[in-house]
Protein 1
Amino acid sequence: MHLLGPWMTTTSYKKRKQKITKTGMMRYQTEHADFNRRMKREGRHQEQLTLEQYIDYTCGKLKLNTSQPKVQAQPAPRTYRRETEEIPSLGIGVGVATKGQDKVYTGTKIKGIGTMHKSNAVPIFSDDEAKEISKMRRG
């Protein structure tokens, strides 16, 4: 008998399916309950699974239908066109009111300008303020 390569074998390379143990089944049941609870909270009721479907899903035999909702493109709205070609302007009539006088400071309230610190100019409105500023400068 001659020697043949590894492609000629009497045993199978296929992995056998392992049976789920009792502890494994208990773990699947708790995970399944958590999965369904989470789907319910997220408002994805249609994605809840039975226990058998959940086991197939975790083993990779079942894929969830996670297709995105189909969005239909809306046609572009028609642009509005005015029927009249030209709109007459308001005209050059007289305005609503006359312009008020500009506010100009006359200088009647201010008595003078004092120096508080270095070259800091401060307006003086009364004699009391002038005395106060002079006392501040001297310390």
Note: The mean pLDDT is 83.
Protein 2
Amino acid sequence: MTAVQVHEPLRRLSPLVCHVQVADGAICLRITGSVSSGDDATSVVDELTEACGLCCGMVLLDVTRCDIDSELLIAMIRDAALRATSSRCQVRVLVDEPDVVTALSQAGIARAELPAGTR
């Protein structure tokens, strides 16, 4: 069994954790664990809405270590955007799952590129 095969089931069973990093003009909200509809999704939307309200630069939503459905991710980003109506920030999503990348592009949601050589 490879490390990837071991990592995937653990990622799906991991509880939701939101990590916040703040820099000059930017906030990074890193989501780890599994996000399903309900309380987990509400927590992420609340965190993203608050970050958008506090930041006038860029909010980076990092879901590279998160097990999340692309439709749920899009709905959460749109919900946060509606709730943070006075926000002047730009939201970018950092993701490495090809199907989620495609869904975000089709929905018109901006992405941040992973640095070369990272997984």
Note: Residues 1-11 have pLDDT under 50 and may be disordered.
Protein 3
Amino acid sequence: MGRKYLQSFYVLALIISALFFPAFSGDNNIKTAGAN
């Protein structure tokens, strides 16, 4: 586990949060679809 692994994991976490954060903050339809 080097610095490259941590950096790629951080970028992946940013992409996932960028995809899911509008769903949590905005549409209730996407939120309920993700919950079910």
Note: Residues 3-25 form the longest helix (23 residues).
Protein 4
Amino acid sequence: IFDLVVGGRSGRGCWRQKARLVSSTDQERELKEKQRNAEALAELSESLRNRAEEWANKPKMVRDTLLTLAGCTPYEVRFKKDHSLLGRVFAFDAVSKPGMDYELKLFIEYPTGSGNVYSSASGVAKQMYQDCMKDFGRGLSSGFKYLEYEKKHGSGDWRLLGDLLPEAVRFFKEGVPGADMLPQPYLDASCPMLPTALVSLSRAPSAPPGTGALPPAAPSGRGAAASLRKRKASPEPPDSAEG
């Protein structure tokens, strides 16, 4: 009997210890996620701040690609292995390091309407994989292989994001595929404002004369008004070209 009682107490002690470990791990994971989101928002803010002065210095292929892709935003993406996991691509930029070619950077909100921003397809795909499989240790080689985009909202025509943005396009070696591949923009009035607008409500998309609007795009007109009304009426719900 003594052994059973001690064993029972010991068992409860082990359970409590495991519970504390799990709780600590969850807290660490939540802290890392907050830090990651803050860094992504900082990247987005930097992109918005520098876009006008850097626009004229970008090669024509880069500018043309960014303008084409900006005209498609926002549009929905989902995880290939779990179609209930949805986000939305809302902005693009081109970044380069000294001596390196330009790379396409895309900004994705996931989950849709959450305000959580990812600055790479691989970052979103990894989080979706974790949400789907509850496997926090595995990384994904390329997010573009695991994300699908809807060509037109409500059409059910989902296509692989890697087909829209192959490596040659992401490194500005080739132009964006034809119009039959481009998604149509869709702004869900039931969602809060896009992160682009939240980062900088005072900045409207602009570019030097003759170049058109530099991405990222932000809601405007009735869409923006509807988003503002939505935010007032109810509270807001809770790495690069490689993918």
Note: Strands lie at 75-79, 82-95, 103-109, 117-118, 147-150, 158-160.
